[in-house]
Structures are given as structure tokens and as C-alpha cells.
Write a structure and sequence with these properties.
Shape: globular
Strand order of the largest sheet: 2-1-8-7
Largest sheet: 4 strands, mixed
Radius of gyration: 14 Å
Order of helices and strands: HHEHHHEHEEEEEE
Strand content: 25-35%
Number of helices: 6
Number of strands: 8
Length: 117
């Protein structure tokens, strides 16, 4: 997404994500960024702070495709912030859940130079 690309660049994470990988980025949609409302401007005001933390929350080390998640759900994985994410099924959907009430529905896998989005 355009906002994700802008956020990764602003948070100075491009070099890190091009580093020793592979990485999997569970990319928030532009709609998810839009849901942040006015706080989005605040996040971009200090991009290496909370914005960086939010982005790293959506990244895990390794090549984790939708197919792999489907095969091993339920399972736990760790993001680059060190948090544990629970991979589970909900009907036909694959969900990443951090047990705080926040979750992400995984829709597709897009191979990239240094991992998968």
C-alpha cells in the first residue's frame, strides 16, 4: 500500500527490511491507516518512535506465506518487537491475534525481494 511504503520510509526501516532476511510483513491496508484518523499525522511527526514500533509489530523474521499459516494454525509466532502473535483460523480466514482484542485477517501472500508481504 502507498501509506505503508511512506510509513516504512519515514520510520527509516527500509534498510532494516532489506537487511538479513527474509522477512514477512503483515501489511496494513490503506484503509487501516485511514482508521488512525488525526493520530496518523502525530505518528509521522515522530516516525522513528511509535510509528516504527507499530510497523515492526507487523513484521516477523522468516518467509511466512498464507499457505504456511493455514498449514500450521493454530500456532504462535514472534514479531520483530518481541510480541507473541497467535495464528488461528476463523472459518476460512487466517487471523493473527495478539490477545489484546486487536487482530489482522491475512488475505494474500506477495513474494518480494527479501521476503513476503
Amino acid at each position: 500500500t502507498r501509506r505503508l511504503t511512506n510509513a516504512v520510509t519515514a520510520a527509516e526501516l527500509v534498510d532494516a527490511l532489506l537487511g538479513e532476511g527474509p522477512f514477512t510483513v503483515f501489511a496494513p491496508s490503506d484503509q487501516a491507516f485511514g482508521g488512525l484518523g488525526s493520530s496518523l499525522e502525530e505518528l509521522f511527526a515522530d516516525p522513528t518512535g511509535e510509528l516504527s514500533d507499530i510497523l515492526l509489530y507487523h513484521v516477523v523474521h522468516g518467509y511466512v506465506s498464507v499457505g504456511l499459516l493455514e498449514e500450521f494454525a493454530p500456532a504462535e509466532i514472534s514479531n520483530l518487537n518481541g510480541a507473541r502473535l497467535v495464528v488461528r483460523r476463523s472459518g476460512v480466514n487466517i487471523i493473527l491475534d495478539d490477545n489484546s482484542g486487536a487482530f489482522t485477517t491475512i488475505e494474500q501472500s506477495i513474494p518480494c525481494i527479501n521476503g513476503i508481504v
